[in-house]
Amino acid sequence: MRRVSRIAVAGVATAALAVTVSACGSSSTSSKDGGESKGIGLAYDVGGKGDQSFNDAAYAGLQKAEKEFGVSGRDIEPQDGESDADKVQRLETLAKQGYNPIIGVGYSYAPAVKEVAAKYPKVTFGIVDDDTIKAKNVADMVFHEEQASYLAGVAAAKTTKKNHIGFVGGVDIPLIHKFEAGFIQGAQSVNPKIKIEKQYLTETAQEGGFSSPDKGENAANGQIDAGADVVYHAAGLSGQGVIKAAAAHKVWAIGVDSDQYEQSALAKYKDYILTSALKNVEGAVYDLAQSVIKDKKPLSGEIRGSLDNGGVGLADTNPTFKGNADLQAAIKKAEDGIKDGSIKVKTS
After folding, report:
1. I need a labelling partner for 210 at 20 to 30 A (CA). Which of 15, 233, 241, 318 fits?
2. What is the DSSP secondary-structure string of 7-62?
3. Is 60 exceeded by the pLDDT of residue 333?
4. Which H or E run contains 277?
5. 72-81, 90-99, 124-133, 141-150: the lowest-pLDDT one
6. Residue 18 in contact with residue 287, Cβ under 8 Å?
């Protein structure tokens, strides 16, 4: 099990979320036609499985649920340049085949989830990173990304030797602005005069901001050449390029969503991955599956992960990071401030 600094990682516990989650009341383990659930359906965001980040966290939740609940699952990759109609067709295919719950991994699934959930009211749908769908059979699985990013900013500012750090965002959208805002605020809480490089790879996801490691590598190389010696990315698959560049220059990278220090595909770069700002997509997927398949009380409404309930945090698997007492004390102080409300983390 991946470890997170001072917070639980078992998932976004149902009990902890009782105040923000509502249940449908009746079982959703039957399909539209009344048959038993075939298992869990998962539709990936851009970048797909193998990004070692956002999508892979969702897949880990699917695997855990399959193992513990004895059900099958089906996960489907996205296509380049696909439309909302393509996403609708993908979700409808899963519903017709009897999968329940069905989860769209990423905010881009919002229109499709809204449309398909209305057609299949006995099926529970989940969407990650969107809170706009208000339906009895939809769970909006969202997170306080800015809180984990604040801690990442503290870590970067305490680690840099040049008082110069960088942020690489995949796509210039409000969701990724939360990562940037928290990171900058956290870093400036340590050193108000710290220099911060900032770059977004693309204006839209269709341009490859979340799925182009070469773009991430080029951006990181530019920031490192400018003097940054710690670079934080919120760029999905593109972040692999950021990590590659950091390793090539022997400076620190900070990963995102999954514990990237632990990812086998990134093993050759792990000595340069300081930590990762975690978003427990794995736990959210698992908890929704449990509510439908085991508990027979499907979750719905907003489910928001935070520092308080273990939904976000920092990975501490890198011994260099974990063993730095001064750094850990600064992170603990920041965590406590966010939890008690004395630190208000910005989202833009």
Report:
1. 318
2. S--S-S-TTTTTTT-EE-SS---B-TTSPBP-EEEEE--TT-TTSSSHHHHHHHHH
3. yes
4. strand 273-279
5. 72-81
6. no
